[in-house]
Amino acid sequence: MIQNKTRVEYTAYGTEYQVCLPLNIEKIIPSDEPVRLLSAVLEELDYRKLTATYSRYGRIEYSPRLLFKIVLYGCSRGIYKSREIERACWENINFMYLLEGRRPPDHNTIARFRRNHLPEAIEDLLYQMVQLLVAHGEISFEESAVFIDGTKIEANASRYSFVWKTGTTKKQAKLGEKIANELPPLLEKAGAGIAAPKQITVQQLKKLRKRLYAKKAEMGLEFVYGKGHHKSGIQKAIETIHSWLERLKRYNLDIHICGDRNSYSKTDHDATFMHMKEDHMKNGQLKPGYNVNVATVSEYIIGNYISADRTDTKTFIPFLEKLCSKHPVKRVVVDSGYESEENYHYVDGSEQLSLFVKPSNHEQKKKRKYQNDIGRRENMPYDEEKDEYTCAQGKKLKAVSTVTRKSETGYKQEVTIYACEDCKGCPVKEKCIRQKKTDKTPLEERVKRLNVSKYFISQRAAMEKKISTEEGILLRINRSIQAEGVFAMMKEDMNFRRFLTRGKANVTVEWYLVSMAYNILKLHHKIQKGRLGTHLIIPKTA
Fold first, then answer.
1. Where exactly are the structural domains of the chain?
2. Is residue 234 within 8 Å of 190, Cβ to Cβ?
3. How far apart are CA 92 and CA 71, in angstroms?
4. How far from chain centre, in Å, is Cα 151?
5. HSE, side-chain direction, 13 A CA sphere, residue 180
6. Strands, E assignment, 144-271
7. Cα dist. 356→124, 313, 327, 337 in Å?
8. Is 0.85 surpassed by the pTM of this model?
9. Concatenated DSSP letters of 495-536
10. Which residues of 496-513 are buried (b: 16+ CB within 10 A; e: fewer)?
11. Spatial distance between the Cα atoms of 260 and 308, rounded to a whole number of angstroms
12. Helix/strand/coil for 487
């Protein structure tokens, strides 16, 4: 018997009457509604790159332009799920206005559009929107600057299904030791006359297992299972080696997925476990997420960079290279999280770029505790001619060696090591030398040392003067308002706090959609408040 799945209609329960509705939906929508602005702006974009993602065969049921409109408008209203967008198309008159009289698309159609078509064209669409704003004088790289900031957005992944690279490496090494110890006696008990290989590798174990299978066939043995059956030595050896191989494969795969990262999520392999401001357990627990970097000019988003790195220092150079390839970037303003010698060196080698970055110790050095710390290099007098520091007790710290350190990205840093001439019997040794729990050398035998990068110190000193100028102060104020204001509006007003999709490609599409929706809303607010053409926010004087 086939069950009838046809949905029951409700027209039979009512009386027949004519519902009176205006023929033109547009007349109901207020003239200052943001949906009108969104539709007008998106009509100016070129959708040829998006249309090219569709197959040449068959008929396109819904225009890519139309689908893009309703998806983007949904983001501006905090509606991100495809099922919720479908329902809004049936119930919300603004969505009906964007549909232009068409029947609302199915949620599967919306999901396929975002998954299969937008990844190839979404970045180009944002670039077109930025160029449109530049053409209308809303974005100016001359009068404004590029403000960069980053935040951590939680991934759509389990918070407890994680893999740590360090732990996996230790397990791998321990398993290698176990195999080296247990393999010779295991083969001896098998009685197959096969010796253990000198080097234990996955390939050698596979060859050994193959030889054992050949020996099993030669001897005419049959594998047995269950209670009451005695396994032969060859069967035990094959099963044990097989279990070792499976564990080694799993460890190798985990390390491969981690790559340069220290962890990954089993639910979303591209997500890395990081500290978040939103701590659901209030114990500093790590959560899977992405490091999202945003560049703003004249209060509009001009570019994004999504990374699995937990720190912002590694994302600065690739993000800046991406921005410079598309926009005439001149002034770049970032916070202290982006400060590093490598980033200083990269901008220093460019004639086009001018960097404004707040040093990481800018606020700390104003505190009394920092100023009274006798162990800090900043609080020791420096003689440039003799190239030596003087500690609080009047002892000299002279340069003893110069070493070159290489970062994870390949940058070579030259570090000068200074050592105190005599630290024996120093009364303030405990305050001067920081003793870690892992240090095996007793404090009495230790000598005060300083690791100094002269290039980094000179760049930081120059940057302190640069950010203290009127231009530097104004740009730093605007970075706090424009760059950090983006995340405030997205998280609070647009209710975007967690990615709904998995994988870096899908996450990128999701964030670009939110960014373009933000630009539309920002343009709407500036129009309504009469702030068109303003690029920098000038603080009111007292």
1. 23-136, 164-265, 279-360+464-528, 364-459
2. yes
3. 13
4. 8
5. 10
6. 146-154, 162-164, 263-265
7. 28, 14, 18, 12
8. yes
9. ---B-SS-SHHHHHHHHHHHHHHHHHHHHHHHHHTT-TT--S
10. beebebbbbebbbbbbbb
11. 10
12. helix
What architecture does CATH give domain 279-360+464-528?
2-Layer Sandwich (3.30)
User: Any idea what the Cα angle at residue 38 is, between residues 52 and 77, rounded to 5°?
Assistant: 105
User: Rounded to an integer, what distance in angstroms lies between the CA atom of residue 89 and that of residue 105?
Assistant: 8
**DSSP label at 491?**
I
Q: To 10 degrees, what angle do helices 454-467 and 470-478 make?
A: 90
CB 212 within 8 A of CB 194: yes
Contacts of 14 (CB under 8 A, 6+ apart): none
What are the backbone dihedrals phi and psi of residue 323, each rounded to the nearest 5 degrees, phi first?
A: -70, -40
Strand pairing partners for 260? none
Measured CA angle at 295 (ends 294, 298), to 5 deg: 130
Closest CA to 351 of 373, 328, 330, 369: 330
Treating both helix axes as pointing N-terminal to C-terminal, what angle do 34-43 and 64-76 enclose, rounded to 10 degrees?
140
**The two three-digit tokens of residue 147, written as one number:** 């403000």
Helix ranges restricted to H, 52-199: 64-76, 82-91, 93-99, 107-112, 118-135, 165-190
Give the separation between CA 441 and CA 514, rounded to whole angstroms. 54
Query: Are 129 and 41 spatial neighbours (Cβ–Cβ below 8 Å)?
Result: yes
Residues in the chain: 542
In this prediction, residues 132-154 reach a mean pLDDT of: 94
At 507, list the tokens: 């996450």
Task: Tell me the one-letter amino acid at 237.
Answer: A
What pLDDT, in 10s, does the model give residues 91-117? 999 999 999 889 999 999 999 999 999
Two structure tokens written together for 10: 């409700």
At 205-218, the pLDDT tens digits run: 999 999 999 988 88
The amino acid at residue 232 is S
Q: What is the pLDDT of residue 433?
A: 87
Task: Say which amino acid occupies 111.
Answer: A
Retrieve residue 374's tokens: 């006798």
Q: How far apart are CA 129 and CA 132, in angstroms?
A: 5
Six token digits for residue 182:
């247990």
Sign, CA dihedral 40-323-471-467, equals: positive
Structure tokens at 361: 């110790």
To the nearest 10 degrees (0 to 180), the angle between helices 118-135 and 504-528 is: 20
Contact 499, 154 (CB under 8 A): yes
Q: Give which of 93, 243, 157 is closest to 499, Cα–Cα.
A: 157
Question: Cα torsion for 514, 151, 526, 36, to the nearest 10°?
Answer: 10
Q: Indicate the SS3 state at residue 106.
A: coil
* 363-402 tens-digit pLDDT: 888 999 999 999 899 999 999 999 999 998 899 999 999 9
Q: What are the residue ranges of helices labelled H in 338-453?
A: 341-348, 368-371, 429-432
The span from the CA of 345 to the CA of 402, in Å, is 19
Separation of alpha carbons 122 and 514, rounded Å: 11
